[in-house]
Amino acid sequence: MKPQPGWPSSSCPSPSFSPHRVDVCVVEMRLSVAARKLWCIRKQLIVLLVPLLFLPLLFTLPEKEGKCLYVVLLMAIFWCTEALPLAVTAMLPVCLFPTLGILPSKKVCIQYFLETNFLFLSGLLMASSIEEWGLHRRIALKVLSIVGLQPAKLILGMMMTSSFLSMWLSNTATTAMMLPIANAILESLFGDLETLKEKCKRDGLWENFPIWPLFLLDRKQKCPKEIQSEAQYQMKVWKGFLICIPYAASIGGTATLTGTAPNLILIGQLKTYFPNCELINFGSWFAFAFPLMLIFLLVGWLWIAFLYGGLSPRLCFRKNERAEAEAKAKAVIVEEYRKLGRINFAEGAISFFFILFAILLFTRDPKFFTGWSVLFKKGYVSDAVTGVIISSILFFFPSQKPSLSWWFDSRASNAPYVPLLSWKKAQESVPWNIILLLGGGFAMAKACEESGLAAWIGGHLQPLAEVPPAAAVMLITGFVACFTEFASNTATIIIFLPVIAELAIRVSVNPLYFMIPATIGCSYAFMLPVSTPPNSIAFASGHLMVKDMVKTGAVMNVLGILCVSLAINTWGVAMFNLTDNPDWAQTNKTTQVL
Protein backbone atom coordinates (compact mmCIF):
# COMPACT_ATOMS: atom_id res chain seq x y z
CA MET A 1 0.00 0.00 0.00
CA LYS A 2 1.36 3.43 -0.91
CA PRO A 3 1.97 5.76 2.02
CA GLN A 4 -0.60 8.51 2.24
CA PRO A 5 0.48 12.15 2.08
CA GLY A 6 1.42 13.50 5.47
CA TRP A 7 2.54 10.13 6.89
CA PRO A 8 5.95 10.55 8.58
CA SER A 9 7.97 7.89 6.81
CA SER A 10 11.11 8.59 8.92
CA SER A 11 9.25 7.57 12.07
CA CYS A 12 8.14 4.29 10.49
CA PRO A 13 11.22 2.44 9.29
CA SER A 14 9.42 -0.88 8.66
CA PRO A 15 8.44 -1.32 4.99
CA SER A 16 5.46 -3.50 5.99
CA PHE A 17 2.17 -1.70 6.36
CA SER A 18 0.53 -1.70 9.79
CA PRO A 19 -2.51 0.47 10.59
CA HIS A 20 -1.57 0.46 14.27
CA ARG A 21 1.94 1.67 13.49
CA VAL A 22 0.58 4.41 11.25
CA ASP A 23 -1.72 5.61 14.05
CA VAL A 24 1.21 5.68 16.48
CA CYS A 25 3.31 7.64 14.00
CA VAL A 26 0.57 10.19 13.46
CA VAL A 27 0.11 10.65 17.22
CA GLU A 28 3.86 11.05 17.71
CA MET A 29 4.02 13.62 14.95
CA ARG A 30 1.14 15.61 16.42
CA LEU A 31 2.66 15.49 19.90
CA SER A 32 5.97 16.65 18.47
CA VAL A 33 4.31 19.58 16.71
CA ALA A 34 2.40 20.49 19.88
CA ALA A 35 5.59 20.33 21.95
CA ARG A 36 7.36 22.65 19.53
CA LYS A 37 4.44 25.08 19.64
CA LEU A 38 4.45 25.07 23.45
CA TRP A 39 8.21 25.62 23.50
CA CYS A 40 7.81 28.67 21.29
CA ILE A 41 5.43 30.30 23.78
CA ARG A 42 7.06 28.94 26.96
CA LYS A 43 7.91 32.38 28.34
CA GLN A 44 4.36 33.66 27.91
CA LEU A 45 3.02 30.51 29.59
CA ILE A 46 5.37 30.96 32.54
CA VAL A 47 4.29 34.59 33.00
CA LEU A 48 0.61 33.60 32.92
CA LEU A 49 0.63 30.30 34.83
CA VAL A 50 3.22 30.78 37.59
CA PRO A 51 1.23 33.54 39.37
CA LEU A 52 -1.79 31.22 39.37
CA LEU A 53 0.29 28.29 40.61
CA PHE A 54 1.51 30.22 43.67
CA LEU A 55 -1.86 31.75 44.58
CA PRO A 56 -2.46 29.28 47.49
CA LEU A 57 0.44 30.93 49.34
CA LEU A 58 -1.71 34.02 49.83
CA PHE A 59 -4.29 32.02 51.79
CA THR A 60 -2.29 29.31 53.61
CA LEU A 61 0.52 31.37 55.21
CA PRO A 62 0.43 34.35 57.60
CA GLU A 63 -0.90 37.35 55.68
CA LYS A 64 2.16 39.56 55.20
CA GLU A 65 4.69 36.73 55.07
CA GLY A 66 2.58 34.84 52.53
CA LYS A 67 2.21 37.86 50.25
CA CYS A 68 5.92 38.63 50.39
CA LEU A 69 6.87 34.98 49.73
CA TYR A 70 4.45 35.02 46.77
CA VAL A 71 6.30 37.96 45.19
CA VAL A 72 9.76 36.56 46.02
CA LEU A 73 8.99 33.17 44.42
CA LEU A 74 7.40 34.87 41.43
CA MET A 75 10.50 36.98 40.86
CA ALA A 76 12.81 34.02 41.46
CA ILE A 77 11.04 31.94 38.78
CA PHE A 78 11.03 34.83 36.33
CA TRP A 79 14.73 35.50 36.95
CA CYS A 80 15.76 31.86 36.62
CA THR A 81 13.73 31.24 33.46
CA GLU A 82 14.16 34.77 32.05
CA ALA A 83 10.47 34.70 31.15
CA LEU A 84 10.71 38.48 31.45
CA PRO A 85 13.90 40.49 30.96
CA LEU A 86 15.89 40.57 34.21
CA ALA A 87 15.48 44.32 34.59
CA VAL A 88 11.71 44.13 34.06
CA THR A 89 11.39 41.47 36.74
CA ALA A 90 13.48 43.69 39.02
CA MET A 91 10.84 46.43 38.68
CA LEU A 92 7.95 44.21 39.79
CA PRO A 93 8.33 45.23 43.48
CA VAL A 94 7.31 48.78 42.50
CA CYS A 95 3.83 47.56 41.54
CA LEU A 96 3.40 44.37 43.61
CA PHE A 97 4.62 45.39 47.09
CA PRO A 98 2.35 48.47 47.38
CA THR A 99 -0.74 46.82 45.82
CA LEU A 100 -0.42 43.76 48.08
CA GLY A 101 0.03 45.93 51.16
CA ILE A 102 3.60 44.78 51.88
CA LEU A 103 5.44 48.12 51.56
CA PRO A 104 4.36 51.65 50.58
CA SER A 105 5.71 52.82 47.24
CA LYS A 106 7.88 55.55 48.79
CA LYS A 107 9.82 52.87 50.67
CA VAL A 108 10.10 50.65 47.60
CA CYS A 109 11.18 53.23 45.02
CA ILE A 110 13.95 54.68 47.19
CA GLN A 111 15.69 51.28 47.14
CA TYR A 112 16.45 51.63 43.43
CA PHE A 113 19.08 54.32 43.90
CA LEU A 114 20.83 53.80 47.19
CA GLU A 115 24.43 54.95 47.67
CA THR A 116 25.54 51.45 46.67
CA ASN A 117 24.11 52.07 43.20
CA PHE A 118 26.13 55.29 42.96
CA LEU A 119 29.31 53.42 43.87
CA PHE A 120 28.53 50.88 41.15
CA LEU A 121 27.77 53.65 38.65
CA SER A 122 31.03 55.48 39.40
CA GLY A 123 32.98 52.26 38.84
CA LEU A 124 31.24 51.75 35.50
CA LEU A 125 32.02 55.33 34.43
CA MET A 126 35.69 54.84 35.26
CA ALA A 127 35.68 51.58 33.28
CA SER A 128 34.03 53.35 30.32
CA SER A 129 36.79 55.96 30.18
CA ILE A 130 39.49 53.25 30.35
CA GLU A 131 37.87 51.44 27.41
CA GLU A 132 37.34 54.68 25.49
CA TRP A 133 41.07 55.43 25.34
CA GLY A 134 42.35 51.83 25.02
CA LEU A 135 44.27 51.77 28.28
CA HIS A 136 43.05 48.22 29.04
CA ARG A 137 44.53 46.91 25.78
CA ARG A 138 47.90 48.53 26.51
CA ILE A 139 47.96 46.91 29.96
CA ALA A 140 47.08 43.48 28.53
CA LEU A 141 49.75 43.53 25.81
CA LYS A 142 52.40 44.78 28.23
CA VAL A 143 51.75 41.97 30.70
CA LEU A 144 51.82 39.33 27.94
CA SER A 145 55.14 40.64 26.64
CA ILE A 146 56.64 40.20 30.12
CA VAL A 147 55.47 36.70 31.12
CA GLY A 148 57.09 34.77 28.25
CA LEU A 149 55.73 32.51 25.51
CA GLN A 150 55.75 28.99 26.93
CA PRO A 151 52.13 27.74 27.06
CA ALA A 152 52.02 27.57 30.88
CA LYS A 153 53.45 31.08 31.20
CA LEU A 154 51.14 32.47 28.55
CA ILE A 155 48.09 30.93 30.26
CA LEU A 156 49.29 32.51 33.51
CA GLY A 157 49.75 35.84 31.76
CA MET A 158 46.27 35.66 30.25
CA MET A 159 44.74 34.84 33.63
CA MET A 160 46.67 37.56 35.48
CA THR A 161 45.70 40.20 32.92
CA SER A 162 42.06 39.13 32.72
CA SER A 163 41.64 39.04 36.49
CA PHE A 164 43.28 42.44 37.00
CA LEU A 165 41.16 44.12 34.32
CA SER A 166 38.03 42.42 35.65
CA MET A 167 38.60 44.03 39.05
CA TRP A 168 37.70 47.36 37.44
CA LEU A 169 35.97 46.56 34.14
CA SER A 170 33.00 44.26 33.65
CA ASN A 171 33.77 40.56 33.31
CA THR A 172 32.08 40.53 29.91
CA ALA A 173 34.11 43.46 28.52
CA THR A 174 37.34 41.91 29.80
CA THR A 175 36.63 38.57 28.12
CA ALA A 176 35.55 40.19 24.86
CA MET A 177 38.78 42.19 24.75
CA MET A 178 41.17 39.39 25.72
CA LEU A 179 39.91 36.62 23.42
CA PRO A 180 41.00 38.27 20.12
CA ILE A 181 44.46 38.88 21.61
CA ALA A 182 44.69 35.22 22.66
CA ASN A 183 43.64 34.01 19.21
CA ALA A 184 46.23 36.20 17.48
CA ILE A 185 49.02 34.82 19.67
CA LEU A 186 47.86 31.22 19.20
CA GLU A 187 47.71 31.59 15.41
CA SER A 188 51.30 32.83 15.39
CA LEU A 189 52.37 29.84 17.51
CA PHE A 190 50.37 27.03 15.90
CA GLY A 191 49.10 28.37 12.58
CA ASP A 192 45.54 28.47 11.29
CA LEU A 193 42.99 26.79 13.56
CA GLU A 194 41.07 25.02 10.77
CA THR A 195 44.28 23.51 9.40
CA LEU A 196 45.15 22.36 12.91
CA LYS A 197 41.77 20.65 13.27
CA GLU A 198 42.25 18.82 9.96
CA LYS A 199 45.57 17.45 11.16
CA CYS A 200 43.92 16.26 14.37
CA LYS A 201 41.23 14.35 12.44
CA ARG A 202 43.54 12.27 10.26
CA ASP A 203 43.41 9.16 12.41
CA GLY A 204 40.72 10.01 14.91
CA LEU A 205 38.69 12.67 16.59
CA TRP A 206 40.63 15.79 17.48
CA GLU A 207 39.13 15.88 20.97
CA ASN A 208 41.00 12.74 22.09
CA PHE A 209 44.43 13.82 23.27
CA PRO A 210 47.50 11.58 23.89
CA ILE A 211 49.31 11.61 27.21
CA TRP A 212 52.78 12.39 25.83
CA PRO A 213 52.36 14.74 22.83
CA LEU A 214 55.19 16.38 20.91
CA PHE A 215 55.54 20.13 20.69
CA LEU A 216 56.69 22.12 17.70
CA LEU A 217 59.18 19.59 16.28
CA ASP A 218 60.65 19.65 12.79
CA ARG A 219 57.73 18.67 10.58
CA LYS A 220 59.98 17.37 7.80
CA GLN A 221 61.20 14.52 10.01
CA LYS A 222 57.78 13.45 11.32
CA CYS A 223 55.60 10.56 10.40
CA PRO A 224 51.85 11.22 10.02
CA LYS A 225 51.19 9.85 13.50
CA GLU A 226 53.65 12.31 15.03
CA ILE A 227 52.12 15.19 13.09
CA GLN A 228 48.67 14.24 14.36
CA SER A 229 49.96 13.86 17.91
CA GLU A 230 51.56 17.29 17.79
CA ALA A 231 48.41 18.88 16.32
CA GLN A 232 46.26 17.32 19.04
CA TYR A 233 48.53 18.75 21.70
CA GLN A 234 48.45 22.19 20.11
CA MET A 235 44.65 22.04 19.89
CA LYS A 236 44.57 21.13 23.56
CA VAL A 237 46.69 24.15 24.48
CA TRP A 238 44.42 26.33 22.33
CA LYS A 239 41.40 25.22 24.36
CA GLY A 240 43.28 25.98 27.57
CA PHE A 241 43.86 29.54 26.41
CA LEU A 242 40.21 30.09 25.53
CA ILE A 243 38.82 28.62 28.73
CA CYS A 244 41.19 30.36 31.15
CA ILE A 245 40.10 33.89 30.16
CA PRO A 246 36.42 33.80 31.26
CA TYR A 247 37.36 31.88 34.40
CA ALA A 248 39.99 34.45 35.36
CA ALA A 249 37.54 37.29 34.64
CA SER A 250 34.98 35.74 37.02
CA ILE A 251 37.65 35.25 39.71
CA GLY A 252 39.04 38.77 39.35
CA GLY A 253 35.64 40.40 39.71
CA THR A 254 35.39 39.19 43.31
CA ALA A 255 38.45 41.18 44.46
CA THR A 256 36.79 44.62 44.55
CA LEU A 257 33.36 45.82 45.60
CA THR A 258 32.74 47.33 42.18
CA GLY A 259 34.11 44.31 40.30
CA THR A 260 30.81 42.44 40.17
CA ALA A 261 27.21 43.15 41.15
CA PRO A 262 26.83 40.49 43.92
CA ASN A 263 29.49 42.25 46.01
CA LEU A 264 27.44 45.44 45.96
CA ILE A 265 24.26 43.55 46.77
CA LEU A 266 25.98 42.27 49.91
CA ILE A 267 26.71 45.86 50.97
CA GLY A 268 23.17 46.99 50.22
CA GLN A 269 21.54 44.12 52.08
CA LEU A 270 23.87 44.56 55.05
CA LYS A 271 22.65 48.14 55.33
CA THR A 272 19.07 46.90 55.17
CA TYR A 273 19.35 44.08 57.68
CA PHE A 274 22.20 45.31 59.86
CA PRO A 275 22.41 49.11 59.60
CA ASN A 276 24.93 49.25 62.47
CA CYS A 277 27.41 46.97 60.66
CA GLU A 278 30.22 49.13 59.29
CA LEU A 279 32.85 46.44 58.78
CA ILE A 280 32.56 46.10 55.00
CA ASN A 281 33.73 48.86 52.69
CA PHE A 282 35.96 49.05 49.64
CA GLY A 283 39.23 48.88 51.59
CA SER A 284 38.32 46.08 54.00
CA TRP A 285 36.76 44.02 51.22
CA PHE A 286 39.85 44.40 49.04
CA ALA A 287 42.13 43.42 51.93
CA PHE A 288 40.11 40.21 52.37
CA ALA A 289 39.21 39.30 48.79
CA PHE A 290 42.41 40.19 46.93
CA PRO A 291 44.58 37.51 48.63
CA LEU A 292 41.75 35.03 48.06
CA MET A 293 41.72 35.97 44.37
CA LEU A 294 45.48 35.42 44.10
CA ILE A 295 45.32 32.00 45.76
CA PHE A 296 42.42 30.82 43.63
CA LEU A 297 44.05 32.23 40.51
CA LEU A 298 47.22 30.25 41.27
CA VAL A 299 45.51 26.90 41.94
CA GLY A 300 43.16 27.49 38.99
CA TRP A 301 46.14 28.13 36.73
CA LEU A 302 47.84 24.93 37.90
CA TRP A 303 44.69 22.93 37.15
CA ILE A 304 44.09 24.45 33.71
CA ALA A 305 47.77 24.24 32.73
CA PHE A 306 47.89 20.60 33.85
CA LEU A 307 44.65 19.64 32.12
CA TYR A 308 45.48 21.35 28.81
CA GLY A 309 49.12 20.45 28.45
CA GLY A 310 50.77 23.63 29.63
CA LEU A 311 52.80 21.76 32.26
CA SER A 312 53.94 18.98 29.93
CA PRO A 313 57.53 17.93 30.78
CA ARG A 314 58.38 17.95 27.07
CA LEU A 315 58.29 21.72 27.14
CA CYS A 316 61.66 21.65 28.89
CA PHE A 317 63.33 20.26 25.77
CA ARG A 318 63.89 21.18 22.11
CA LYS A 319 64.07 24.91 22.83
CA ASN A 320 65.84 25.61 19.55
CA GLU A 321 63.03 23.97 17.60
CA ARG A 322 60.44 26.13 19.33
CA ALA A 323 62.38 29.35 18.80
CA GLU A 324 60.89 30.16 15.40
CA ALA A 325 57.27 29.80 16.51
CA GLU A 326 57.88 31.69 19.75
CA ALA A 327 59.58 34.49 17.82
CA LYS A 328 56.47 34.82 15.64
CA ALA A 329 54.21 35.05 18.68
CA LYS A 330 56.52 37.60 20.28
CA ALA A 331 56.42 39.62 17.08
CA VAL A 332 52.60 39.65 17.16
CA ILE A 333 52.55 41.06 20.69
CA VAL A 334 55.26 43.62 19.91
CA GLU A 335 53.51 44.71 16.71
CA GLU A 336 50.14 45.10 18.42
CA TYR A 337 51.75 47.14 21.18
CA ARG A 338 53.62 49.25 18.61
CA LYS A 339 50.34 50.09 16.86
CA LEU A 340 49.14 51.73 20.06
CA GLY A 341 51.96 54.24 19.79
CA ARG A 342 53.42 56.15 22.69
CA ILE A 343 51.19 56.68 25.70
CA ASN A 344 49.27 59.88 25.05
CA PHE A 345 47.97 62.56 27.37
CA ALA A 346 44.50 60.99 27.66
CA GLU A 347 45.90 57.59 28.65
CA GLY A 348 48.20 59.21 31.18
CA ALA A 349 45.33 61.21 32.67
CA ILE A 350 43.08 58.14 32.87
CA SER A 351 45.91 56.20 34.54
CA PHE A 352 46.30 58.95 37.12
CA PHE A 353 42.58 59.15 37.94
CA PHE A 354 42.30 55.36 37.96
CA ILE A 355 45.10 55.06 40.54
CA LEU A 356 43.67 57.97 42.54
CA PHE A 357 40.24 56.31 42.44
CA ALA A 358 41.61 53.05 43.85
CA ILE A 359 43.77 54.72 46.52
CA LEU A 360 40.98 56.98 47.81
CA LEU A 361 38.51 54.09 48.01
CA PHE A 362 41.03 51.85 49.73
CA THR A 363 42.18 54.42 52.29
CA ARG A 364 38.82 56.02 53.18
CA ASP A 365 38.20 53.73 56.14
CA PRO A 366 40.17 50.46 55.78
CA LYS A 367 39.53 49.46 59.45
CA PHE A 368 43.12 48.34 60.08
CA PHE A 369 44.47 51.93 60.05
CA THR A 370 42.92 55.38 60.31
CA GLY A 371 41.55 56.53 56.98
CA TRP A 372 41.04 60.01 55.56
CA SER A 373 37.29 59.95 56.31
CA VAL A 374 38.10 61.15 59.86
CA LEU A 375 38.64 64.60 58.30
CA PHE A 376 34.86 64.86 57.80
CA LYS A 377 31.81 64.37 59.98
CA LYS A 378 31.40 60.75 60.99
CA GLY A 379 29.10 58.84 58.64
CA TYR A 380 28.86 61.64 56.08
CA VAL A 381 31.43 60.47 53.50
CA SER A 382 31.04 57.02 51.96
CA ASP A 383 32.66 55.13 49.09
CA ALA A 384 29.86 56.44 46.84
CA VAL A 385 30.92 60.04 47.51
CA THR A 386 34.52 59.22 46.56
CA GLY A 387 33.47 57.44 43.38
CA VAL A 388 31.16 60.19 42.19
CA ILE A 389 33.81 62.89 42.79
CA ILE A 390 36.40 61.11 40.64
CA SER A 391 33.96 60.05 37.92
CA SER A 392 32.56 63.58 37.66
CA ILE A 393 36.04 64.96 36.95
CA LEU A 394 36.26 62.70 33.89
CA PHE A 395 33.46 64.65 32.19
CA PHE A 396 35.36 67.95 32.06
CA PHE A 397 39.06 67.04 32.25
CA PRO A 398 40.56 67.50 28.74
CA SER A 399 41.80 64.54 26.73
CA GLN A 400 44.53 66.66 25.10
CA LYS A 401 47.33 68.49 26.85
CA PRO A 402 46.36 72.13 27.50
CA SER A 403 48.67 74.74 26.06
CA LEU A 404 49.02 78.44 26.85
CA SER A 405 50.15 79.12 23.28
CA TRP A 406 46.65 78.22 22.05
CA TRP A 407 45.34 81.51 23.47
CA PHE A 408 47.78 83.53 21.36
CA ASP A 409 47.70 81.46 18.14
CA SER A 410 45.05 82.81 15.79
CA ARG A 411 45.52 79.83 13.44
CA ALA A 412 44.92 77.22 16.14
CA SER A 413 41.69 75.21 15.97
CA ASN A 414 38.77 76.66 17.90
CA ALA A 415 36.87 73.38 18.10
CA PRO A 416 35.52 72.50 21.56
CA TYR A 417 37.89 70.34 23.57
CA VAL A 418 37.07 66.67 24.07
CA PRO A 419 36.80 65.50 27.71
CA LEU A 420 38.06 62.14 28.94
CA LEU A 421 34.48 60.86 29.02
CA SER A 422 31.37 62.13 27.27
CA TRP A 423 27.83 61.57 28.52
CA LYS A 424 26.94 59.91 25.21
CA LYS A 425 29.66 57.32 25.75
CA ALA A 426 28.52 56.82 29.34
CA GLN A 427 24.93 56.23 28.22
CA GLU A 428 26.07 53.64 25.68
CA SER A 429 28.44 51.71 27.92
CA VAL A 430 26.75 51.73 31.34
CA PRO A 431 24.50 48.65 31.80
CA TRP A 432 21.48 50.44 33.24
CA ASN A 433 19.63 47.12 33.47
CA ILE A 434 22.09 45.96 36.14
CA ILE A 435 21.43 49.10 38.20
CA LEU A 436 17.71 48.26 38.09
CA LEU A 437 18.56 44.69 39.04
CA LEU A 438 20.47 45.93 42.08
CA GLY A 439 17.50 48.09 43.05
CA GLY A 440 15.12 45.17 42.71
CA GLY A 441 17.31 43.14 45.01
CA PHE A 442 17.42 45.86 47.64
CA ALA A 443 13.65 46.30 47.43
CA MET A 444 13.15 42.56 47.90
CA ALA A 445 15.48 42.53 50.91
CA LYS A 446 13.61 45.47 52.47
CA ALA A 447 10.26 43.72 52.00
CA CYS A 448 11.56 40.44 53.44
CA GLU A 449 12.71 42.29 56.55
CA GLU A 450 9.64 44.46 57.16
CA SER A 451 7.07 41.78 56.33
CA GLY A 452 8.70 39.30 58.72
CA LEU A 453 9.31 36.77 55.93
CA ALA A 454 13.02 36.53 56.71
CA ALA A 455 12.31 35.75 60.36
CA TRP A 456 9.62 33.24 59.37
CA ILE A 457 12.00 31.39 57.04
CA GLY A 458 14.75 31.53 59.66
CA GLY A 459 12.46 29.84 62.17
CA HIS A 460 12.08 26.88 59.81
CA LEU A 461 15.86 26.62 59.40
CA GLN A 462 16.50 26.02 63.09
CA PRO A 463 17.46 22.31 62.57
CA LEU A 464 20.54 23.51 60.66
CA ALA A 465 21.91 24.79 63.97
CA GLU A 466 23.28 21.28 64.53
CA VAL A 467 25.63 21.60 61.53
CA PRO A 468 29.14 22.83 62.49
CA PRO A 469 29.61 26.41 61.19
CA ALA A 470 32.74 25.51 59.17
CA ALA A 471 30.81 22.73 57.40
CA ALA A 472 27.84 25.06 56.91
CA VAL A 473 30.10 27.56 55.13
CA MET A 474 31.18 24.92 52.62
CA LEU A 475 27.60 23.72 52.11
CA ILE A 476 26.28 27.25 51.58
CA THR A 477 29.09 28.18 49.19
CA GLY A 478 28.69 24.93 47.27
CA PHE A 479 24.92 25.28 46.99
CA VAL A 480 25.10 28.88 45.77
CA ALA A 481 27.89 28.04 43.30
CA CYS A 482 25.80 25.19 41.86
CA PHE A 483 22.59 27.24 41.70
CA THR A 484 24.31 30.10 39.88
CA GLU A 485 25.33 27.71 37.09
CA PHE A 486 21.72 27.93 35.91
CA ALA A 487 20.72 31.44 37.01
CA SER A 488 22.17 34.94 36.97
CA ASN A 489 24.67 35.41 39.79
CA THR A 490 22.98 38.71 40.66
CA ALA A 491 19.56 37.09 40.87
CA THR A 492 21.00 34.17 42.86
CA ILE A 493 22.48 36.32 45.60
CA ILE A 494 19.36 38.52 45.74
CA ILE A 495 17.22 35.44 46.37
CA PHE A 496 19.40 33.65 48.93
CA LEU A 497 21.22 36.35 50.89
CA PRO A 498 18.23 37.29 53.09
CA VAL A 499 17.71 33.61 53.94
CA ILE A 500 21.40 33.14 54.72
CA ALA A 501 21.42 36.24 56.94
CA GLU A 502 18.42 34.98 58.91
CA LEU A 503 19.99 31.52 59.20
CA ALA A 504 23.11 33.04 60.75
CA ILE A 505 21.01 34.92 63.30
CA ARG A 506 19.05 31.80 64.20
CA VAL A 507 22.17 29.68 64.80
CA SER A 508 23.93 32.55 66.68
CA VAL A 509 26.76 32.89 64.16
CA ASN A 510 28.25 36.16 62.92
CA PRO A 511 26.19 36.85 59.76
CA LEU A 512 29.30 37.84 57.80
CA TYR A 513 30.66 34.32 58.34
CA PHE A 514 27.91 32.96 56.07
CA MET A 515 27.14 35.97 53.87
CA ILE A 516 30.66 36.69 52.57
CA PRO A 517 31.37 33.12 51.29
CA ALA A 518 27.90 32.98 49.70
CA THR A 519 28.49 36.29 47.91
CA ILE A 520 31.86 35.21 46.53
CA GLY A 521 30.62 31.71 45.71
CA CYS A 522 27.88 32.99 43.43
CA SER A 523 30.59 34.36 41.12
CA TYR A 524 32.15 30.90 40.77
CA ALA A 525 30.06 29.69 37.81
CA PHE A 526 32.46 27.73 35.63
CA MET A 527 30.69 24.59 34.41
CA LEU A 528 28.25 25.67 31.68
CA PRO A 529 28.33 28.11 28.75
CA VAL A 530 25.09 29.72 29.97
CA SER A 531 26.39 30.26 33.51
CA THR A 532 27.91 33.68 32.83
CA PRO A 533 28.26 36.01 29.82
CA PRO A 534 32.09 35.47 29.79
CA ASN A 535 31.54 31.71 29.52
CA SER A 536 29.10 32.27 26.67
CA ILE A 537 31.56 34.51 24.79
CA ALA A 538 34.34 31.92 25.03
CA PHE A 539 31.98 29.11 24.02
CA ALA A 540 30.67 31.14 21.07
CA SER A 541 34.15 31.03 19.52
CA GLY A 542 33.19 27.52 18.36
CA HIS A 543 36.37 25.86 19.60
CA LEU A 544 35.08 24.69 23.00
CA MET A 545 32.53 22.00 23.77
CA VAL A 546 30.20 21.71 26.73
CA LYS A 547 32.12 18.70 28.02
CA ASP A 548 35.33 20.79 28.08
CA MET A 549 33.69 23.38 30.33
CA VAL A 550 32.02 20.78 32.57
CA LYS A 551 35.25 18.82 33.04
CA THR A 552 37.31 21.91 33.80
CA GLY A 553 34.62 23.84 35.67
CA ALA A 554 33.63 21.05 38.07
CA VAL A 555 37.12 20.97 39.57
CA MET A 556 37.29 24.79 39.49
CA ASN A 557 34.10 24.92 41.56
CA VAL A 558 35.57 22.53 44.14
CA LEU A 559 38.83 24.51 44.28
CA GLY A 560 36.87 27.75 44.68
CA ILE A 561 34.82 26.38 47.58
CA LEU A 562 37.99 25.19 49.32
CA CYS A 563 39.75 28.53 48.78
CA VAL A 564 36.77 30.50 50.14
CA SER A 565 36.60 28.23 53.20
CA LEU A 566 40.32 28.71 53.78
CA ALA A 567 40.05 32.49 53.51
CA ILE A 568 37.00 32.96 55.73
CA ASN A 569 38.40 30.66 58.45
CA THR A 570 41.88 32.24 58.57
CA TRP A 571 42.45 35.90 57.81
CA GLY A 572 38.68 36.50 57.44
CA VAL A 573 38.14 35.54 61.10
CA ALA A 574 40.90 37.91 62.19
CA MET A 575 39.82 40.84 59.98
CA PHE A 576 36.09 40.79 60.77
CA ASN A 577 36.20 39.20 64.25
CA LEU A 578 33.96 36.37 63.07
CA THR A 579 34.31 34.28 66.22
CA ASP A 580 31.92 36.60 68.11
CA ASN A 581 28.21 37.15 67.60
CA PRO A 582 28.34 40.96 67.29
CA ASP A 583 26.05 43.49 68.92
CA TRP A 584 24.83 44.81 65.55
CA ALA A 585 23.45 41.35 64.71
CA GLN A 586 21.83 40.99 68.14
CA THR A 587 20.20 44.41 67.78
CA ASN A 588 18.65 43.36 64.48
CA LYS A 589 17.35 40.14 66.02
CA THR A 590 15.76 42.04 68.93
CA THR A 591 14.14 44.50 66.53
CA GLN A 592 12.58 41.70 64.48
CA VAL A 593 11.22 40.01 67.61
CA LEU A 594 9.65 43.26 68.78
From TrEMBL:
It comes from Takifugu rubripes (Japanese pufferfish). It comes from the Eukaryota. The chain crosses the membrane at residues 45-62, 68-97, 109-130, 150-169, 241-265, 285-309, 345-363, 379-397, 472-500, 512-532, 553-574. One of its GO terms (cellular component) is plasma membrane. PANTHER family: NA(+)_DICARBOXYLATE COTRANSPORTER 3, SOLUTE CARRIER FAMILY 13 MEMBER. Belongs to the SLC13A/DASS transporter (TC 2.A.47) family. NADC subfamily. Coiled coil: none annotated. Keywords: Ion transport, Membrane, Sodium, Sodium transport, Transmembrane, Transmembrane helix, Transport. Its main location: membrane. InterPro entries: SLC13A/DASS. Pfam families: Na_sulph_symp (PF00939). This is Solute carrier family 13 member 3. It is found in: Membrane. The keyword Transmembrane helix applies. One of its GO terms (molecular function) is citrate transmembrane transporter activity. The gene is slc13a3. It is a multi-pass membrane protein.
